[in-house]
């Protein structure tokens, strides 16, 4: 009987392995990385203007008394192209939007804005992603609603799409 027991051990190990894999596939971990800064003041920063003719962006600009949507984008980012018309629509609805261009050059940013619309009041350039990392951002596009005192109230990871507009507007109103 002992030799038959040794033959069953690989089958038992395989069964445990398959059960573990099946469990993990049925309940994957949440891949969303949320900023730990929600409810906290923005980190201090002063970014140079990303394109000529558009004001630079500093953390002080985001403490001007009214809420703002801070959008992190890049001209090389395909999802940023998808969200561009939605941001233009939000701007038409009165949402003040500032931006940080991540690892991008002035000519590429200007071309992006000309091709896809420019909803931004100010655009700062973050060539080394230092401000992006300080914000706890996981990539582009990503948006934050900042209240008039410079406190982060909401984070939206990924492109802002039409179905996200009600949530963005509700969070905007709550930040007032």
TrEMBL record:
Belongs to the thioredoxin family. DsbE subfamily. SUPFAM superfamilies: Thioredoxin-like (SSF52833). It comes from the Bacteria. The keyword Disulfide bond applies. Pfam families: Redoxin. CDD domains: TlpA_like_DsbE. GO terms for cellular component: outer membrane-bounded periplasmic space. The keyword Transport does not apply. One of its GO terms (molecular function) is disulfide oxidoreductase activity. Keywords: Cytochrome c-type biogenesis, Disulfide bond, Redox-active center. PANTHER family: THIOL:DISULFIDE INTERCHANGE PROTEIN DSBE (PTHR42852). Residues 36-176 form the Thioredoxin domain. This is Cytochrome c-type biogenesis protein CcmG/DsbE, thiol:disulfide oxidoreductase. Transmembrane segments: none annotated. It is found in: Cell envelope. One of its GO terms (biological process) is cytochrome complex assembly. Its main location: other. It comes from uncultured Sphingomonas sp.
């Amino acid at each position: 009987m002992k030799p038959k027991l040794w033959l069953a051990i690989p089958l038992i190990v395989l069964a445990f392995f398959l059960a573990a894999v099946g469990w993990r596939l049925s309940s994957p971990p949440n891949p969303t990385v949320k900023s730990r800064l929600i409810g906290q003041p923005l980190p201090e920063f002063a970014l140079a203007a990303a394109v000529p003719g558009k004001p630079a962006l500093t953390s002080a600009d985001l403490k001007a008394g009214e809420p703002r949507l801070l959008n992190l984008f890049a001209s090389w980012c395909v999802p940023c192209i998808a969200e561009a018309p939605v941001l233009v629509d939000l701007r038409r609805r009165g949402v003040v939007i500032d931006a940080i261009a991540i690892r991008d050059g002035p000519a590429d940013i200007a071309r992006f804005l000309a091709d896809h619309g420019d909803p931004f009041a100010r655009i700062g350039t973050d060539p080394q992603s230092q401000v992006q990392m300080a914000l706890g951002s996981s990539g582009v596009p990503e948006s934050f609603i900042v209240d008039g005192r410079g406190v982060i109230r909401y984070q939206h990871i990924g492109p802002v799409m039409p179905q996200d507009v009600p949530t963005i507007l509700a969070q905007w109103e709550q930040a007032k």
